[in-house]
Amino acid sequence: MIAALLQPDVQDFINQNYLADLKKLALRRNPFPEISWPDLLNQLQAKSKAKDKLPTWFSAKNIIYPQKISIEQTSSEQTAAYKATLIQGNTLIDLTGGFGIDDYYFAQHFKQVTHCEINPELSEIVAHNYTQLNIKNIDCQQGDSHAIIQKLNTRWDWMYIDPSRRNDAKGKVFMLRDCLPNVPDSLTFYFQYSDHILIKTAPLLDIKAGLSELRFVRKIHVIALDNEVKELLWEIEKDYTGPIEIHAVALSKDRETVFSTIYDQSMPATYSMPTHYLYEPNSAILKTGAFDAVSAIYKIGKLHPHSHLYTSDAPLDFPGRRFRIEMVIPYQKTEIKNHIEGKQLNITTRNFPLSVEELRKKWKLKDGGNAYCFFTTNIDNEKIIVICSKI
């Protein structure tokens, strides 16, 4: 299939039509009968998805794309580039190589990277693309990663694993033992070949649940891109039993912020009524659950044990949204009618019994504008509305 897709006229067709309406295009006659129409349409769809997510691949010539699920599940270049800065050494083996975005960036920090992929077609595509990208220090191995490890029979500075959930795994609970490879049950085997393992999991995995299944966790990284948590990274070191660092990483086009603390360390929070400024932590911090640590480290007041909003007298450079408090009113009918009913507002709820949709309907509130309202609960367990302007 790769040779057929690389024909110049086929590549020209892909480059000229990747933004086309695929539903309409699918109704047309296939201009290249030697290539299946679904395969060609997949190249168009995948290239379109790669434009923002994988700009290096998108910009390179003669790149072949796998099925769209591989594009959807792969790391973005921005998260892959950050991830690669966390570890370094001479050798790394990736047991679940996929489309190879992570390994492209690992190869910039390691002398030699081994990419394992059980899908023969995907392995061939990745090897071809690395050639197009002029990457010479990645060895693509096709087959089952356990068998490849045993065949190569060497030790690596790092192992990298991105387990995927089995199709037959039932229920909403995300457990690592429901994934392939089954990392918890394979750790003893892996430690025969490396003392350091980096595991990527989806944000759906609960941090406490992950720690209950894994051993020797040294660090956890919660990675968010544009305030959406994209992945959890677990650094494991053989026989490590010390405190676990947890890092909340917020990436955007023009900024990178990292909030770090020790997981489950007792750091008493300070509580306060809303004062002059209000802070909402970014999604990565919220995923860590280190709510008291935020208060202790930034020396700011928390509104309530379960509200996860913070306040201070003076403005701070805070890892999240920052607001100037214009007014605080009790959640009472008269106050609401006097100040916000029927107005255009951006609404957020934290530790509040009604949802945003319910509040909009009940008080005829329109979405948008420059005013921000937080419906929440204060330290006296009173329902309040904090009316703010964004800084």
TrEMBL record:
Protein name: Class I SAM-dependent methyltransferase
InterPro entries per the UniProt record, alphabetical: PG_1098_Fer (IPR054168), SAM-dependent_MTases_sf (IPR029063), Thump-like (IPR041497)
Record domain PG-1098 ferredoxin-like: where: 277-319
Molecular function per GO: methyltransferase activity
Pfam family, one: PG_1098_Fer
Signal peptide start-end: none
THUMP-like domain ranges (all copies): 320-390
Sorted UniProt keywords: Methyltransferase, Transferase
Gene Ontology terms describing biological process: methylation
